[in-house]
Amino acid sequence: MTVTPLRQALAVLTVVFLAVAATPVAAAAEPDPKALTWTVQPATASGPDQRRWITASLDPGQAVTEHLAVRNFSRTAVTFALKAADGYLTDKGRFNMLSSDRPSVDGGTWIDVQDKVTVGPNETRVVPFTITVPRSAPPGDHPAGIAATVSSAGGTVTVESRVGFRVMLRVNGSARAALAVRGLDATYSPSWNPFAGGTVRVRYTVENDGNVWVSGTSRVAMSDLLGRSSHDATSAVEELLPGGSRTVRTRADGLWALGRLRTTVTTSPTLLGDGQAGADLRSASATVTTWVVPWAQLALLALLAGLLLGLRAAARHRRRRLAGLLARARQEGRQEAQESVLVGGAATAGEPDPGDAHR
Asked: Where is this region: Disordered (predicted)?
């Protein structure tokens, strides 16, 4: 069949039209997470409830069914992937769950939920999930998280956007709450003003050495060479999951120290979550010694000592000079007296006797 130029042009236009029309369809299959808005929260079988997260105290081998609610605020239907993973706290104290490229080994593996859920625009879907505690699970807390995610490809990188909540799983048994103090360090910076005290900077790490979710307090106390307390302050320790840690920094200004400065940090844990009323709460402490040389004050003392020695030397010099002047004055006085006596005696011997004139 002969193809005329007109038919060739129509065929090209048809291909271009189909390609342009197919592009929005392909994009709609993978929505941009930036254009989507959704929430995920704990729920009952009938709908969302008022819980911020789910807490469960279970025995080894026990299973329980919970629910989550996914609400899509977007204008189009979205298919969300549902994922569970181990939970942890970031350095800033915010709860997070492991990303998809990091395998879970603890509480995240105990949660069984369906892989996907499709939620229409402005629709809420309730999804059940099951928590099953292994029979060999050790007592204590095993934090996890569950989220609804949307993935998008940006070049060679896949970006995963997720919204979820924490699932705090506690296995009943012997609970131990302890906040250990690691890496305690204290440094003293003297003031160059000899009439002002220096600054002590304290740095240490608080580590959850127990098996339950805790917060607590830490007390920093300092004592000088004579055992006198020069600083005593208490601060809050934010929540820590088992095995988690947080670095604490504090400072004390205006401290006078000479020689040995002892800094002691004492922690007291507070149990968080439900259950385990009979938990073993253990306090911990650590002490570090800093040797302090107050150079500014020593320089001032040296200056005062030098000034005092100079004043004493000047006073001795004045006393010696005055004593010399007095001795010289006495000597001159004695010489003048002797000269007066000699002059007076010579004048008396040369005078005529009046009786000789009458003879």
From this structure: 334-359
